UniProtKB/TrEMBL annotation:
Annotated source species: Streptomyces castrisilvae
Protein name stated in the entry: DNA-3-methyladenine glycosylase 2 family protein
Region (Disordered): 1-32, 53-75
InterPro entries: Alkylbase_DNA_Glycosylase/TA, DNA_glycosylase
Keyword DNA damage: yes
Length: 327
């Protein structure tokens, strides 16, 4: 009788994946020599959603491990820089795809020389960070969904939601089990997560509804990875709940979009205003005006500003997280 009165979507909720104790197949490998200096931490760092991201690990030796859901299936990639070369190993159905895309991921198509600094701060930072390149994953949903989770909440809240949902509804990543990585859920599994599990993860109905609308058209979203920036922005923002902030944060990662400036951020206008004009109270309009000399490279300009360490001292109290699971 209890099952008869269970919530309707309980009967179709996805079953969390369990790790299987199976032998680890041999890794596929590749060695690639980048065209110039490359700092793995700087390049791949934007993919990490918090220190406990179940899809991403950085090691003390500078190597990076990440799990992805590729068009060929789940895959795990381990990359390390040695003597000017990148050595990579990959496991799972998506291994070949990940290795084929390795140069693209690490910014082979990026052109740092296209950026001409017009402020001393940016010139100095660019000189000190020669290994910065803009990554390009070629995968939209894996950046779009966590970006939606980050809307209008603290980073700690968003990271917690991503961690809980991926661990519960994703699957253990291929490769060595000691990596402890998970592949994010596929589109169908996201669509079947019951409402109370979103609530338990601290995700309000507005953000969960946006994700549900997104995964229903997952294929159309993934097509944006091959589009020019204006068309890609239009494609993503056709989904109610995805605005300019979320679209830019996604395309910076999936498309390596050097001009995808983040508008609508709580902190960024003040940081840019402080760094370039000494105005910590700048709004989006002033930020865009200050970035006008970097048209076509505005995202790179903001990355360099953030890496410079020239951020205004905090005056406002920190935004307090809300525990909606207790509401």
């Amino acid at each position: 009788m209890a099952g008869r009165f269970a919530p309707r979507d309980a009967r179709r909720a996805p079953v969390p994946h369990q790790a299987a104790a199976t032998p680890v197949p041999a890794a596929q490998t590749r060695v690639w020599t980048p065209p110039g200096p490359l700092d793995l931490r700087l390049v791949l760092g934007p993919l990490r959603r918090g220190p406990a991201d179940p899809t991403f690990r950085m090691s003390a030796d500078g190597s990076v491990r990440r799990a992805s859901r590729t068009p060929a299936g789940p895959g795990t990639l381990h990359v390390v820089a040695r003597e000017g070369r990148i050595e990579a190993a990959a496991w799972g159905p998506g291994a070949s795809w990940l290795l084929d895309q390795l140069p693209t991921l690490l910014g082979e198509g990026d052109d740092p020389a296209a950026f001409t600094p017009r402020h001393r701060l940016l010139a100095v930072t660019q000189h000190r960070r020669p290994g910065l390149r803009l990554l390009r994953t070629g995968l939209v949903l894996e950046s779009l969904i966590p970006s939606v989770l980050e809307q209008k909440v603290t980073t700690d809240e968003a990271y917690r939601a991503w961690r809980l949902l991926v661990r519960r509804y994703g699957e253990p990543a291929p490769g060595p089990q000691e990596y402890g990585l998970y592949v994010m859920p596929d589109a169908r599994t996201w669509s079947l997560i019951p409402s109370w599990e979103w609530h338990r993860a601290g995700v309000d109905s507005k953000r969960s509804a946006t994700i549900l609308r997104t995964v229903r058209v997952a294929r159309r979203m993934e097509e944006a990875a091959a589009m020019e920036l204006p068309d890609a922005l239009t494609r993503l923002q056709a989904i109610p709940g995805i605005g300019s902030w979320t679209a830019a944060e996604t395309l910076q990662r999936s498309n390596g979009a050097a001009d995808a400036v983040t508008v609508g951020d709580f902190h960024l206008p003040g940081i840019v205003g402080h760094a370039l004009a000494g105005n910590r109270n700048a709004d989006d309009e002033e930020m865009l005006a200050l970035l006008t000399p970097y048209e076509g490279q505005r995202h790179r300009a903001t990355r360099l500003i953030l890496l410079s360490g020239e951020t205004p001292p905090r005056r406002a109290p920190r935004l307090q997280p809300r525990d909606i699971a207790r509401l």
